[in-house]
Design a protein that fits this description.
With about 150 residues, this protein is mostly helical. Helix content is about 75%, strand content about 5%. β1 and β2 form a beta hairpin. It starts with 18 loop residues before the first strand and ends with a helix.
């Protein structure tokens, strides 16, 4: 009547199991049934902790990756700001060269025809104002790139 290998109700035990009385259930259970019940109860929390640990590891990997990429991205953004501001500052140097050309042409024109002094001077002031306006515009754009973005 006991469970043996190859017998009816094969559980893998080679000897006959003693019946034990489980308190509070009002019935009897065999040792393999109790062992199976406790193993199942232990296996479920163990499986849950393994899944939770792998989820925590994956989450920590994502956090560390996002931190490292955000630092690189911030460096790239600041480098782009400085490059853009530097390129805008080149326009200020161009303005200085333009002002030099305007007054150089004034001197040459005055040397060729001194009677056009007043008209040449008004054109020189107009050229100076336009060149200076472009220089100030470039400087303003450089500051906007640095401090507004």
């Amino acid at each position: 009547m006991g469970n043996t290998l190859g017998g009816r109700g094969d559980t893998g035990w080679a000897t006959e199991e003693p019946k034990t009385n489980t308190k509070g259930r009002g019935g009897t259970s065999s040792v393999p049934d109790l062992l199976k019940m406790y193993c199942q109860r232990l296996a479920v929390p163990l499986a849950r902790t393994l899944v939770q640990r792998s989820a925590i590891r994956a989450e920590s990997v994502l956090v560390s990756r996002s931190l490292s990429t955000s630092a690189v991205r911030a460096d790239i953004d600041s480098a782009a700001k400085y490059i853009g501001a530097g390129a805008a500052t080149v326009g200020v140097a161009g303005s200085g060269a333009g002002i030099g050309n305007v007054f150089g042409a004034l001197v040459i024109g005055y040397a060729r025809n001194p009677s056009l002094k007043q008209q040449l001077f008004s054109y020189a002031i107009l050229g100076f104002a336009l060149s200076e306006a472009m220089g100030l515009f470039c400087l303003t754009m450089g500051f906007m790139i640095l401090f507004a973005l």
